[in-house]
Amino acid sequence: MPVPIVAGNWKMHTSVTEGLRLALELVEGLDGVSGVEKVICPPFVSLEAVAGVLRGTSVKLGAQNMHHEVQGAYTGEVAPGMLAGLCEYVLLGHSERRSHFAETDEAVNLKVKAAFRAGLCPIVCVGETLEQRESGKAAEVVAGQVRGALRGLHNIMDLVIAYEPVWAIGTGVAATPETASEVMGGVILPTLQEMYTRDPAAQVRLLYGGSVSPGNVESFARLESVHGALVGGASLRPDQFVEIARIVVGAKSGG
Ligand code: PEP
User: What is the atom index within ligand 1 of the atom nearest the CA of 174?
Assistant: First the structure.
């Protein structure tokens, strides 16, 4: 049974000072929660300061994005090597990057490969829009995103995939556990099984994301195909994020 994981995506919120304060509060609550990997993903400018707060604690650091090249004339971008040593995780292909910054499956694929080369664990985000769901294309879209992100990768050790239906992100309307299970157990896992001979269920952790809260996380965490949650809004609320981590531990340990 892989170690469950809860990851918090701060998005473009918090100044460095606010981020430091938030990290301190999160560590205070999260450090004592065991049986789950806890990851926070602040904005780039806060990574170094937050890394200082997390040093010596059980809370891990992730970035929200990166460029795939090692270095070069890419103004405003951040290279994998700049994150390695600071972070263990990196979010890739978040729907906000796909929709606002035209990130394609090909771009996500290059980033996933670059993350592995740099020793970072990618948290690859996939998920369909409302229009795609309503036109019956959710399974096809999600399977395509998984295949696209992992194209050419023969080894998928230590990979995290977050299923985040776009219509559930930041809306307060989470997917139902049935929908999450249909996609995660019924589409993502079989797609991985089709692509890899080694049992992906033993190597890949699947997270549900999209309006996760202390009130709904248990229903997702109880699903066999779910290993935790990717949390946006509630990760900026220390009380809520800590509670989410505790609930995931309880649900995954059968409590
Ligand atoms: C996210 O940003 O990945 C996310 C799931 O956001 P929220 O929890 O706010 O829906």
Answer: 10
DSSP state of 176: P
Look up residue 229 and give its amino acid: A
All domains of the chain, ordered by start, with CATH? 9-252 (3.20.20.70)
Q: Average pLDDT per run of 10 along the chain, which is 255 residues long?
A: 95 98 98 97 98 98 98 98 97 98 98 97 98 98 98 87 97 97 97 85 90 98 97 98 98 87
Atom of ligand 1 at shortest range from CA of 235 = 8
Distance 57 CA to ligand 1 centre (A): 25
- Site to substitute for ligand 1 among 231, 240, 241, most atoms within 8 A of C-beta: 231
Residue carrying structure tokens 């999160």: 26
Distance 237 CA to ligand 1 centre (A): 13
For strands 5-9 and 37-41, give the pairing: parallel
